[in-house]
Specification:
The complex is a heterodimer of chains A (30) and B (571).
Chain A lengths: L1 H28 L1
Chain B lengths: L2 H28 L10 H11 L9 H24 L16 H12 L9 H4 L2 H29 L11 H26 L10 E4 L5 E4 L5 H9 L20 H26 L2 H28 L2 H5 L17 H14 L14 H13 L8 H21 L4 E2 L2 E2 L2 H31 L17 H16 L14 H30 L16 H34 L1
Antiparallel strand pairs in B: 1-2, 3-4
Helix pairs in contact in B: 1-9, 1-12, 2-7, 3-4, 3-6, 3-17, 4-17, 6-7, 6-8, 6-17, 7-8, 8-9, 9-10, 9-12, 10-12, 10-13, 10-18, 12-13, 13-16, 13-18, 14-15, 14-17, 14-18, 15-16, 15-17, 16-17, 16-18
The chains are: A mainly alpha (30), B mainly alpha (571).
Chain lengths: 30, 571
């Protein structure tokens, strides 16, 4: 269970940072 | 004036007296002028050399943000895994266990976002390794990251058309070596000489006067506590934070810590004026922030000094004010002052339990965090205020029928779209989060979770609602203080508050830096008779009105359901 949760949280980190990087580009073109 | 109020006034006056020269010094550092801390230059050069960084390489706003996000991603993964495996790492004399994945998720996000919401207790939930090499490390670097982002905004406000806005790593390292570290060393020495622990030994067993055996946690705490305040972080060594006698031993340390909380946020407002050579503008900003600060502070001190009406009805004398959850060595006024300073600055450390304070104080503290721009956190406070400036300039332009301009740059649709998104994000995160929690509590109180929603709240009714509202407000504002009646170490609260902290940190940095960078690239329009003067009292009143209208309209209904209803109910 802990291993699954750990992987899920790492994925959440990765998804949010990806979104933040995308936001930088989005704000340039908004 | 009584002794309690004298203490509060002394703290504020000393803070401003220190903040003005500190602001001048910060402006000199970032203008490349000589300062007395230039002897740190070889250390900075060594760090750049070892890291393969050329601090002379100019970056545009996007490169700044990408550098900031990249390094934060590395810190996050490192912190998460360090907390997950802390029991296997060195410097664990008390044998504390590793954190669970959801607690590590919350804690790692909490510290990289400068929030320091602590769903664990430092004595049992962390080791000396994680206290020093995760939390203290992140205290420095998260504050410095906000500082560096703010310097990009400052630089972009200078009167020239450019996309070259300095070097992120240069701003970042200098924030640590020239500002955060020197002040922290002074504060740490004062704390250590007043009784804050600095030992690497584990818990000590003591026999009390009653004959009980207690284990007193120790550790190298003084250094962490210093940067916790100086960097507007707030995450303490002990679970009780600065209410703990070893974290904040006496009134002198209380004054030093409280001054440290708002020193840099106020200094940065003055630094803006010295840096841009627009001192009047910084006085206008300081004036707006200070009026807002006093509007929150005075009712809170008044409520705490007058004591609880519920106790008064029972005929109990409250000569020292409302003392539930407070430390006798600080008193009611200094606790209320700390409560407001820690929430206006996104610090989040506490010297008394906010959950026990009068509803008016609770409302002040929540409103401070909802506005999140009266002084604000290191760097990010000014950036939040910058969003309100952009909105105020735009509305002023519409009102007088002129193209909105700020410091010689036209505010157009793109900047307004970004400013509006960022201004709406904060209420969205707080209100939607609280609504979801309230919905679950009411409709699924006994759902089959490890921690059932029915067990979340220590108080029913209005105050229970305030506990949930406070948690999301504190998370979104990256403050970190909490109403301790909320059982927050559960998967729902760890994950939901973690996500809110995450979004509430990075988008409000990306937005202002993007606006500043886009504006710096625009043609500079010299001031003329038709220019809206941004350093006038009239414009200050306009910003103040925008802040209050945006915040009041967004948050008043939620506050009415929590602290306002509670205040009326105990009268």
């Amino acid at each position: 269970m802990d291993a699954i949760l750990t992987i899920a949280y790492v994925l959440i980190f990765a998804i949010f940072f990806w979104l933040f990087f995308k936001t930088v580009n989005y704000f340039e073109k908004i | 004036m009584n002794t309690q109020l004298t203490g509060v006034v002394t703290m504020y006056v000393l803070t401003v007296l220190l903040a003005i020269p500190l602001g001048k010094y910060i402006a000199k550092v970032y203008n490349g002028e000589k300062t007395w801390l230039n002897f740190m230059a070889p250390l900075e050069r060594l760090i750049f050399k070892l890291s393969g960084i050329n601090p002379e390489r100019e970056m545009n706003w996007k490169q700044h943000l990408k550098a900031l996000l990249t390094v934060n991603a590395i810190w996050l993964f490192y912190s998460f895994f360090a907390l997950l495996f802390q029991s296997h790492l060195p410097l664990n004399p008390d044998g504390n266990p590793s954190q669970t994945p959801d607690l590590a998720f919350n804690t790692a996000i909490s510290f990289i976002t400068n929030t320091n919401l602590q769903d664990y207790s430092g004595e049992s939930g962390a080791t000396y390794y994680t206290q020093l090499f995760v939390f203290t490390f992140l205290h420095f670097v998260s504050a410095a990251a906000g500082f560096a982002a703010m310097m990009v905004v400052f630089k972009a406000m200078k009167e020239k058309v450019t996309d070259k806005l300095g070097n992120f790593w240069d701003f970042f390292i200098k924030a640590i070596t020239r500002v955060l570290m020197p002040i922290s060393i002074v504060v740490a020495i004062i704390l250590a000489f007043n009784g804050t622990t600095t030992s690497y030994k584990g818990k000590e067993k003591l026999i009390t006067l009653q004959g009980d055996t207690v284990s007193v946690s120790r550790g190298p705490a003084a250094g962490m506590i210093a940067i916790k305040q100086v960097g507007t972080n707030g995450g303490g060594w002990y679970g009780a934070n600065s209410a703990h006698p070893l974290e904040n031993p006496n009134y002198i340390t209380n004054m030093v810590e409280n001054i440290s909380i708002i020193l840099i946020p106020i200094a940065l407002v003055f630094a803006l004026g010295f840096y841009l050579k627009k001192r009047k503008l910084s006085w206008v900003i300081y004036g707006v922030m200070t009026v807002g600060f006093l509007i929150m502070l005075i009712p809170s001190i008044n409520a705490e000094l007058n004591g609880s009406p519920a106790l008064a009805h029972m005929g109990i004398a409250q000569n020292g004010g409302a003392m539930e959850g407070k430390e006798v060595r600080f008193g009611a006024a200094a606790s209320a002052y700390w409560g407001v300073t820690t929430t206006v600055t996104s610090n989040g450390s506490v010297n008394a339990m906010h959950d026990s304070m009068m509803p008016i104080s609770g409302m002040s503290q929540m409103f401070d965090m909802m506005i999140n721009a009266f002084y604000g956190g290191v760097g990010v406070g000014y950036m939040n205020f910058y969003i309100f400036i952009i909105i105020a300039v735009f509305i002023s332009g519409l009102m007088v029928g002129r193209t909105p301009e700020f410091l010689g740059r036209k505010i157009e649709a793109r900047e307004m779209k970004i400013a509006s998104l960022i201004a709406l994000l904060h209420p969205f995160l707080i209100l939607v989060g609280t609504a979801i929690a309230s919905y679950l509590l009411v409709n699924y109180p006994n759902i089959n979770w490890a921690e059932k929603p029915s067990a979340w709240l220590a108080n029913p009714s209005f105050h229970g609602f305030s506990e949930m509202l406070y948690q999301f407000t504190s998370s979104s504002a990256n403050n970190g203080s909490g109403y301790e009646g909320l059982g927050d170490n559960s998967i729902f609260w760890n994950v939901s508050a973690g996500i809110v902290m995450f979004i509430g940190r990075f988008l409000p940095i990306i937005g202002p830096v993007a606006i500043a960078g886009l504006l710096a690239n625009k043609k500079f329009i010299p001031e003329s008779a038709g220019t809206l003067k941004s350093d006038s009292v009239t414009f200050g009143i306009m910003i103040f009105a925008v802040i209050f209208i945006v915040a009041a309209l967004s948050f008043f209904p939620a506050l009415a359901l929590g602290p306002i209803a509670e205040h009326v109910s105990i009268k």
